[in-house]
Amino acid sequence: MAKIKLFWYSMENNNLNISMKKAIKKKKEEVVVISVGGSLICPEEVDTAFLASLKELVLSGVKSGKRFIIITGGGKVCRKYQNAANSLGGSIADADWIGIDSTRLNARLVKSMIGSKAEDHIIQSPLEKFVFKKSVIVAGGWKPGFSSDHDAVLLAKRFKASKLINLSNIDYVYTADPKTNPDAKKIERITWKEFRKLIPKKWVPGLSSPFDPVASKESESIGLEVAIINGKKLAELENYLAGKEFVGSLIK
Question: Using CA of residue 179, residue 182, residue 186, residue 191, what is the dihedral sign?
Fold first, then answer.
């Protein structure tokens, strides 16, 4: 009888160990999406200091068991070329493709800095078939009608990401443009319903908005949490990833 009890005790322990291992594995596979504004990557010239700090943060997160999807915006390079195309008679579709190509250029740069931890292929469509084997995926823009914010949300949905961080050049989302409206108030926490009242209803190439209207609607529909953080203050991103208080806006 003692042997039978010991056998069942051993089986229970074994099942417990298997469950614990699965839980640990699941925790280690946490996927985080980071949308990096192009203005952070190349405000006027390529900001290598910012990129080096971002690389250090991402690789540190990889060591702790996180996996990252990094999607890049176009920034001023995009705006300059879009403005030039507009002045020369280019179409809206032309402007969109210029923006997309600029995001892919930035994505190639980010992929090169991450090195062997990143998948070799730059993702150009959130719907394309690919296997997430390594620790980091880098993505650029997709196609006309889709901003990098929208692409980031689609990737978050596909890989069941726990967090989406939008790195920009602002500390907070405001109720209005603080540069032109002295009554503008910072927003630390807000629902998607209230946030969507503050932004344009439609997205057009080159739109300046804390988060794309279409991406916002999709995020609300899937219950995604989005943090908007100043990329110049990456310590705040570290705080957010660690579950600590951070300077920035949280939309959910």
Answer: negative
**CA gap 110, 34 in Å, rounded:** 12
Residue 8 in domain: no
Domain range for 84: 29-170+233-247
* Closest C-alpha to 164, from 13, 30, 19: 30
pLDDT at 87 over 90: yes
What one-character DSSP code corresponds to residue 174? E
**For 182-227, what is each residue's pLDDT tens digit?**
899 999 999 999 999 888 777 665 566 778 888 999 999 999 999 9
* Exposure string for 55-79, b = 16+ CB within 10 A, e = fewer: eebbbebbeeebbbbbbbbbbebbb
Res 10 pLDDT > 70: no
Q: Is 195 part of any domain?
A: no
| Cβ-based neighbour number of residue 249 at 10 Å | 24
Does residue 7 fall inside a structural domain?
A: no
24 lies in some domain: no
CATH of residue 111's domain is 3.40.1160.10
What is the C-alpha separation between 120 and 108, in angstroms, rounded? 10
Q: Structure tokens of 138?
A: 């880098």
